[in-house]
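step 4 of 6: structure.
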Amino acid sequence: MKFEITDHSIAPSALREELLSLKSGGYCSYEGWVRNTNEGKLVKKLQYTAYPELAPAIGQKVLIEAKEKFNIIGASAVHRIGLLSVGELAVWVGVTAHHRGDTFLASRFIIDNIKYRLPVWKKEYYADGSSSWIDNSGCDCADPNNLVVDPAACSHH
Amino acid sequence: MRIKILYFAQLADLAGKAEEVREFSSITAKELYKQLAQEYQFPHKFFQLQVAINHELCAHKKELHDGDSIAFLPPMTGG
C-alpha cells in the first residue's frame, strides 16, 4: 500500500511494475486526466495545491480502508500537485487482486474517496484569462457526512 | 494563547497568505472562523469546512490550546 503526493510527472508503467505479483490474477488502474473544458469553459491549465502535512496520511488511510473492505492484494495511488497542462495525468490508482471484481470495486472506492477526502484543491485557468477555484460545496456529494455513507453517490465531480 | 492559522486554496488567496500566528485569551474554532471569514470575506459557512488541528482532522468543537495550529479546509476538489 503506497500513497504519494508528487510535484513530478506521474509514470504509470513504473507504478504498475511495483504492483506486479505472482499471486495476482488481475490488475486494474484508473487515471484522472486534465481535460480541456469544464462547465462550458475552455480550460488551459490546472493548479493543484495540497495540505502537505495531512494529505499523505489521508491517502494512506484510504488505501488501508480499501484493503480492509475488498479482497485485494496490492493498491497504490499518486496525486499530482502544481501546475498541470491539459492532457497531463493528475491522479493514478492501481489495484491488484486474485480476481477482477475486487480490482474494479477497490479502484472505484479509492478514486472516489481520494476525490472527496484528500485535502487537495483544484484551481482552473481558462482560455479567456480568468481563473477559479473549483467549489463543489453546492452539491450534496461534497458533504463529508454523505461521503462516509456513499462516496460513489455522485459521479459528475 | 498563540494559535497558528494555516490557509489553503481559495482561503489562502483571500487571506493573501499561507499562514499567520495570532494571540487570543480564549477562542473556539467556530469563533475564530467567524472572525476570519468577516475579515477576509471567506465565502464558506463554518459547517461546510473540515477542521484540522495540529495536522489532524478533528471535530468542529475540539478545544484550541496554546501552540496549536488550525486549518479550515474547504470542500476537497482533488482528482
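step 5 of 6: annotate
 - Chain B touches chain A at residues 6, 8-10, 12-13, 44, 48, 50, 52, 55-57, 71, 73-79 (CB under 8 Å).
 - The longest helix of chain B spans residues 29-40.
step 6 of 6: archive
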